[in-house]
């Protein structure tokens, strides 16, 4: 089924030994695992940043893939470790909300609190559960060990409190800035399918308002967006985004993650 | 033959989800593919930089390797996608000249315009052909699907206009600065084999002139080059380069990519 | 046994073609090799930094793994290439001390000077032994070729002169700063097992002295360390380290690699 594919996302950076140690702990359990690096350059402790990175890629992988996500500001404290099963995938991560966007989008089959210590590397260092708990668990999962073997099912796992997209008027949606990418593109929490669900397939944005500025041009791809300060488009992960051609829209509009965004649509 | 090796070069950086998404789109088509990261830190939209990186590594790979190169400033516009077959390799890239140095060095067997939409991920986002077109095509190629299945053969593919190395006098060659690497080494477009072809195997450089400065010392490896401001050597990809010991030659000599270089040789 | 796992550590960075070229040279010899990137962001020519990165990860890998380490300031000169066999692993690296921490910790079975040129890629560029010698040798090793085939055994390989941890008084150990990590944590050369060996399992640090400053709080994990300027803990690779909560301890205490550290313990 999975053929041993394990994706690996972290905030470890690539200058220290952490990434190499976790990969070793996976391979020592399953030498046939195929580890695929997604990103190790998530900003330190940035749970929402990691959630967004995972959201943009996890669904592309073949069924049975194990997704290992280690962004773990609470390592060593009593926060739990999680194993989350959806129809197609298994996720291994600390219970700190880093999987919140997966919970929103997927039908969650099973969430297990990782407690079965015989699957851990011993002794467990209180500063490095990635190597001693999450890595080995991902390795065992990729060998086909059942999720339920790793601990009891739970339902009270942590979710980041992210504001829902709300309809605040006729054809007007309110969301927030989910992410600013390295090019300065502003990814909003409003998705193409929110519009389609509420206003029909053909609905098109009339304007976006963000930080008291109006964006009224909507395009299909970046290079169409010349001659205006900023424009909207549907980004590759399905969210509306605000961009500026060859400039950082976030800087041009002085926008930061978390700010409110409203969008007006016409059918 | 290829055993599913796919190299992957891009300007996506490692902070966003793009690299992980493309890898997923490859693996969803061929879960047994083995993706090898070359570099994702090509400067944004730097076609010649990507061309040079690919040039330095593609020829080392086993026959049958698929080389996937995504540096794509024109994504979403009408630029074509290409599949290029040489005797040993298959290249998948946008038709924007990023393969120019491959065209120079290889006997090109077949160039196909990628048009067969049933091999694409649907729907195709106009901003992310890497994920929706190039990744899946690389995956299918690695499964052994024939190049001709992906679209019609073409001959008018885009080449960067790079000046040829010219003989401008007896034993004098003129080229240009092809690349400045992260150490500040200046890689010229003049290759060891240009000299051998024109002046015989034993020919040695007498001097290089670049930005009105003469470089008269030629060495075999970097640490020989002390006691002079700058020296020439044959770099590991076969081009003459100008370097300074423990300093950036590009800064010392105020040299930028594209500048003219002349070299005088003696048999 | 090894199933072809080859870890790869270098100071090549990820902007140039060097990493991709070495991976190709490995795969051209063994197309089934599975190359695992540890880090390519070792600071240029930093032998001790590379040694520390390798130390933190090599021991996690399955038996038979080949560890390829290329940090090679002397490339092209007469420094030898090494193949080092321990009970579980094979190491391939230049003979410049980069394996010193492995020598300290492992029972070394065999050290071979790499000299058998028929295993090299030809011609060997004097500036890139990683591609032309070390990569291919790692590839052949992963195919099961015996270490002794690559050259004669030697015993006079290079070791970095690292001060031993010394007992300088009753319950007082003296070591040095081995590494400062990207968070500014100060990793000392004093290991948990040094204490256990000398003072019994239950021994706990009473204080550390570094750069004339005393650190008297000892914790189990980082987030316990609030309310003090700096604290000690046992890091994930078994060394005592000095950290500051959410700050760089190295900056707070003005500490650099190589500085003396003393530690007082009580049984």
Secondary structure layout:
3 copies of one chain form a homotrimer.
Chain A lengths: L4 E6 L7 H12 L4 E6 L7 H11 L8 E5 L10 E6 L3 E5 L5 H6 L2 E6 L15 H14 L23 E4 L2 E9 L5 E6 H8 L4 E7 L2 E3 L15 E4 L4 E5 L5 H4 L7 E7 L1
Parallel strand pairs in A: 1-2, 1-3, 3-5
Antiparallel strand pairs in A: 4-5, 4-6, 7-8, 8-9, 8-14, 9-13, 10-11, 10-14, 12-13
State the main characteristics.
homotrimer; alpha+beta; elongated; 267 residues
Structure description:
Three copies of one chain form a homotrimer. The first copy, chain A, is of the alpha+beta class. Helices cover 21% and strands 30% of the residues of chain A. The first copy, chain A, is built from six helices and 14 strands. In chain A, the strands form two sheets. In chain A, strands 7, 8, 9, 10, 11, 12, 13 and 14 form an eight-stranded antiparallel beta sheet that branches. The first copy, chain A, has a six-stranded mixed beta sheet with strand order 2-1-3-5-4-6, with helices on both faces. In chain A, a hairpin with a 3-residue loop joins strand 4 and strand 5. In chain A, helix 1 packs parallel to helix 4. The longest helix of chain A has 14 residues. Chain A starts with a strand and ends with a strand. The interface between A and C is medium-sized, with 30 and 39 residues.
Helix content of chain A: 10-25%
- Uncertain runs of chain A: none
Biggest interface and residues each: A-B, 39 and 30 residues
| Gap from first CA to last CA of chain A | 43 Å
How many E strands of chain A? Answer: 14
Order of helices and strands of chain A: EHEHEEEHEHEEEHEEEEHE
Largest sheet of chain A: 8 strands, antiparallel
Using only C-alpha atoms, the radius of gyration of chain A works out to 20 Å
Quaternary organisation: homotrimer
Average pLDDT level of chain A: 93
* Count of discrete alpha- or pi-helical segments spanning 4 or more residues of chain A: 6
Which structural category fits the helices and strands of chain A?
Answer: alpha+beta
Which percent band covers the strand fraction of chain A?
Answer: 25-35%
The 3D shape of chain A can be described as: elongated
């Amino acid at each position: 089924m999975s053929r041993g594919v394990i994706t690996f996302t972290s905030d470890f950076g690539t200058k220290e030994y952490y990434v190499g140690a976790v990969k070793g702990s996976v391979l020592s359990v399953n030498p046939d695992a195929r580890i695929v690096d997604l990103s190790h350059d998530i900003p330190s402790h940035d749970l929402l940043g990691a959630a967004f990175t995972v959201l943009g890629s996890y669904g592309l992988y073949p069924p049975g893939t194990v997704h290992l996500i280690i962004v773990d500001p609470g390592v060593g404290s009593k926060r739990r470790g999680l194993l989350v099963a959806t129809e197609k995938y298994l996720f291994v991560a600390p219970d700190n909300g880093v999987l919140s966007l997966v919970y929103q989008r997927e039908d969650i089959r099973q969430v297990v609190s990782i407690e079965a210590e015989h699957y851990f590397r011993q002794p467990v260092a209180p500063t490095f559960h990635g190597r001693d708990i999450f890595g080995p668990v991902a390795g065992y999962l990729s060998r086909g060990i059942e999720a339920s073997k790793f601990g009891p099912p739970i339902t009270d796992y942590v979710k980041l409190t992210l504001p829902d997209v709300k309809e605040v008027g006729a054809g007007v949606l309110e969301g927030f800035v989910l992410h600013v990418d390295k090019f300065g593109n502003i990814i909003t929490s409003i998705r193409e399918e929110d519009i389609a669900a509420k206003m029909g397939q053909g609905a098109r944005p009339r304007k976006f308002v963000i930080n008291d500025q109006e964006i009224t041009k909507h395009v299909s791809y970046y290079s169409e967006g010349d001659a205006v300060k900023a424009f909207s488009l549907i980004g590759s992960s399905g969210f509306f985004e605000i961009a500026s051609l060859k400039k950082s829209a976030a800087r041009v509009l002085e926008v930061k993650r978390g700010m409110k965004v409203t969008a007006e649509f016409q059918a």
